[in-house]
Amino acid sequence: MDFPSRFRFGHGSVSLPTMNAPILVAASLGLMAFGAGAVAVAEPQPQPRREGVCSFSGWSTDPDPRGLNVRAGPSATARILGTLPPPEPGEDVEVDFGATFDVVEARDGWFRIENARRWSQAGRGASTLPSGWISGRFVGFQLQTDKAFAAPDPASTVVVTSWEEDGGLSQFGYRHPTACHGEWVRLTVVGRDGRERQGWVRGVCGIQETTCDGVQGDLIAQRDWPGY
Questions:
Q1: Contact assessment for residue 219 and residue 146, using Cβ atoms and an 8 Å cutoff
Q2: What is the spatial distance between Cα 118 and Cα 128, in angstroms, rounded to a whole number?
Q3: Where are the domains of the chain?
Q4: How far apart are CA 56 and CA 179, in angstroms?
Q5: What average pLDDT score do residues 192-198 get?
Q6: Whole-angstrom Cα distance, residue 216 to residue 163?
Q7: Is residue 217 within 8 Å of 160, Cβ to Cβ?
Q8: Whole-model pTM?
Q9: Percent of the chain with pLDDT over 90
Q10: What is the pLDDT of residue 3?
């Protein structure tokens, strides 16, 4: 139920035939006093997005020809609602493309997806694939960023960055997302030293064929490349 932002009293007449005049006057004065003392309820303030609520898109990377199980809960023992099909061949390219989806929630390394579609069905009619939970091991996306952080905050410690190599930037490796916080995703990242660590990134692109216009994470300007 939605509650109003402030209390209001209506203006109407009530007939009380059994109440004598003094009592009626006293009751009216009491109602006026109560109305005058009413305190307006403060407007609700927007709450910060909590960890576990996701706002990005991706695709299935599971090559199993039987498809990727979509479950009723974030667990390998939860009921199977259906499957996402395995990647399908692209048109005029030697690349396979997985089923696409929106990610709306994460819990214990599992991600809840909605609006799932075959790659060939994207943008063509309503979704015919199940919504539910899939393992983060099979959530794919591109990253348009050069930095990973210790927390979902660009002011937090940088745990890994892209690096200059052969006149360009070589992006750090990444795999296996486990959590999210709005546009931020936590996953395993690998730097130039080859060591794996956990990091938070943004700049997630859910398009498989090309880059995402307008999606930009935390990039390193060319003037800031080591040795530039």
A1: yes
A2: 9
A3: 53-140, 142-224
A4: 12
A5: 95
A6: 18
A7: no
A8: 0.73
A9: 59
A10: 32
